Amino acid sequence: MSLRLSTVILPYRRWSEGGRSAWVRAEQLGFHTAYTYDHLSWRSFRDGPWFGAVPTLTAAAAATDRLRLGTLVTSPNFRHPVTLAKELISLDDISSGRITLGIGAGGTGFDATALGQEPWTPRERADRFAEFVPLLDRLLTEDTVTHEGRFYSAHEARNIPGCVQRPRLPFAVAATGPRGLKLAARHGQAWVTTGDPKLYENGTPEQSVEALRGQLEKLSETCAAIGRDVTGLEKVLLTGFTPDRGRPLESLDAFVDFAGRHQELGFTEIVIHWPIQDSDFAADEKVFERIAMEAPAQLA
To answer: Is the pLDDT of residue 1 over 70?
Structure first.
């Protein structure tokens, strides 16, 4: 199977000052999907401009025709399934069925406390995620939903006419733990990983490959346990968080070597960050564009 190449465009630029042009250029370069982060603020960008994911994707849908669009990732940190479902159905309609929802359990960053709550423990994040995903699945596939849960409720929530994509838009579930992998196996059309975070600082690329191999094996075992063929699940690697860091974007050959090794593991989609100078995602824009245009053919 040919390897899909996608990108992440962080929402840090005004639409009129480079925001729109990046999404248009992503389509021109032939990326399979252009994602954005769904955060209220993020790491080193906290004290600078940062725009909302849903309005950004809505504008991107209007500015493009073929490019798939999505989040990497949305989480329960500041989202509720009922309101999120309404926004996603609207996005799917505006884009004529080009939306993918990347979804994860959330973390302990700025999003975790922005609404005034205490950060959730890892167990509570997992508990909420386990309720959030199935309810969102129902909201996107059923006209009317009533649900009384431990964390989330819906009372005759109506979502007519539903998604353009049937039975609903695809979920790309980010997970590495056993409970998250079960959600990916049961509800996901794709599975997302960033690798093993413990290896980022002091690990090696070889150790990272072995860690990813282990994650893929666990995903396969989880799918088998519920009778699902793991080959029907897309496997997505969001780059930039493995020990390789930015090295794969230093040249076309470096990227093809990196992507090829991960394609051999079983990954079907590689996601690279749109270059942002003076950041962890700094890269030569000319090299980045050459990778976008030439690497997929070499990895076919």
So the answer is: no
